[in-house]
């Protein structure tokens, strides 16, 4: 029996592709045993057991970036975590360690190296994180979402997408989606989302200009996040939601999207062929802007920087685009051409190949 250790977590950007890969592994090889290495604090502590996978936890170990008490104690705590993962690898006879970045990945990579266990890495973002840059030195099985990701010996597999997105038939599901959000089937739908926590700049600009958007013939579904600052302008055709737990239906309803450019969002929209305007999150190392570059270059999306996303930009750029059906259709076609829906299956195949290569060869 093949036993796989999937290491990663903390945020949805790590947990969702990990779970999508676990599901693909189980479907490809039903007898596979899957363990997930994560932390007590991350989303994996809830989502992994809910999906039916075994979770093993270690302490949350952020890499120290400046001198502090945590920096002084980090080497000891990191060594303890590595030893714990080494013991797990030996006790459970792990065939392959797969890392998705995040706090659990770095100890797993070093433990795998010390036990001569094959390592497979998946990097979701165009700019790789510290753990994956470090671990990529010890393996030639590096999978990336975007071709421009600067990791050595990388193979483009795309993003492992959630099953409900990867298999979504938008045309078939659209009537159900329109009913779910109480939308008019005769008018196109603009979906606006800043993620589960919302996005202040996107929220305020769309709220202030929704009258003009609706007057242009559109209706709007807007996930604003859990925020007390947002005030509903009560414009007919505008549907603000604090959170959407059926993004598959939201995508099925959408004719155009305004969103942040997290790696999963970019890949989901490309795979589904939905044209978009991306407003990259302005904090961090610039990975969101880089995530969108390939799809923008392919003609499937445009980018507006957060600082430029205002009412004037909506009037000058968004409203004319929403009124240009031919251009939007071309964007949808180009997005679909550049999208990858089977990233989870591609990554699962790489993992299972690594497992085969790790088994002792018996001379005939």
What does this 3D model show about the protein?
This protein has helices spanning 12-28, 44-51, 69-91, 105-114, 130-135, 163-166, 170-180, 200-215, 247-253, 263-272, 287-298, 311-322, 325-338, 343-358, and strands at residues 3-7, 33-39, 54-58, 96-99, 119-123, 142-144, 154-156, 189-193, 219-223, 238-241, 256-259, 276-278, 301-303. Helix 1 links the parallel strand 1 (3-7) and strand 2 (33-39). It has 2 domains: 3-163 and 342-358, Glycogen Phosphorylase B (Rossmann fold), CATH 3.40.50; 168-338, Glycogen Phosphorylase B (Rossmann fold, 3-Layer(aba) Sandwich). The model has no long low-confidence stretch (mean pLDDT 92). The strands form 2 sheets. The chain has a 7-stranded parallel sheet, sandwiched between helices. The chain has a 6-stranded parallel sheet with strand order 10-9-8-11-12-13, with helices on both faces. With 364 residues, the protein is α/β, with parallel strands linked by helices.
Which key terms come to mind for this protein?
Rossmann fold, six-stranded parallel beta sheet
């Amino acid at each position: 029996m093949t036993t796989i250790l999937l290491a990663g977590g903390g945020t949805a950007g790590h947990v969702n592709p990990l779970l999508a890969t676990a599901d693909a592994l189980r479907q490809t090889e039903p007898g596979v045993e899957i363990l997930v290495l994560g932390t007590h604090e991350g989303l994996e502590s809830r989502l992994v057991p809910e999906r039916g996978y075994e979770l093993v936890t270690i302490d949350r170990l952020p890499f120290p970036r400046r001198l502090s008490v945590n920096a002084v104690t980090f080497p000891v705590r990191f060594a303890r975590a590595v030893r714990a993962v080494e013991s797990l690898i030996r006790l459970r006879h792990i065939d392959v360690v797969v890392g998705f970045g995040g706090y659990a990945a770095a100890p797993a990579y070093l433990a795998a190296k010390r036990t001569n266990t094959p390592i497979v890495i998946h990097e979701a973002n165009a700019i790789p994180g510290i753990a994956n840059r470090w671990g990529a030195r010890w393996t030639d099985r590096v999978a990336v979402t975007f071709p421009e990701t600067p990791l050595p010996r990388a193979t483009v597999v795309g993003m492992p997408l959630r099953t409900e997105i990867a298999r979504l038939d938008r045309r078939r599901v659209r009537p159900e989606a329109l009913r779910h959000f109480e939308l008019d089937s005769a008018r196109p739908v603009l979906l606006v989302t800043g993620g589960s926590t919302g996005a202040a700049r996107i929220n305020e600009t769309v709220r202030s200009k929704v009258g003009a958007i609706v007057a242009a013939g559109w209706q709007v579904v807007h996930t604003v996040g859990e925020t007390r600052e947002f005030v509903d302008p009560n414009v007919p055709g505008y549907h603000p939601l604090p959170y959407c737990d059926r993004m598959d239906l939201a995508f099925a309803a959408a004719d155009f999207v305004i969103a942040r450019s997290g790696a999963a969002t970019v890949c989901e929209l490309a795979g589904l062929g939905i044209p978009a305007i991306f407003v990259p999150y302005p904090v961090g190392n610039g990975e969101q802007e880089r995530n969108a570059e390939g799809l923008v270059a392919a003609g499937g999306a445009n980018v507006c920087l957060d600082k430029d996303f205002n009412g004037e930009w909506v009037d000058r750029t968004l409203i004319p685009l929403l009124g240009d059906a031919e251009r939007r259709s071309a964007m949808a076609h180009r997005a679909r051409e550049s999208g990858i829906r089977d990233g989870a299956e591609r990554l699962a195949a790489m993992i299972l190949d690594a497992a085969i290569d790790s088994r002792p060869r018996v001379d005939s």
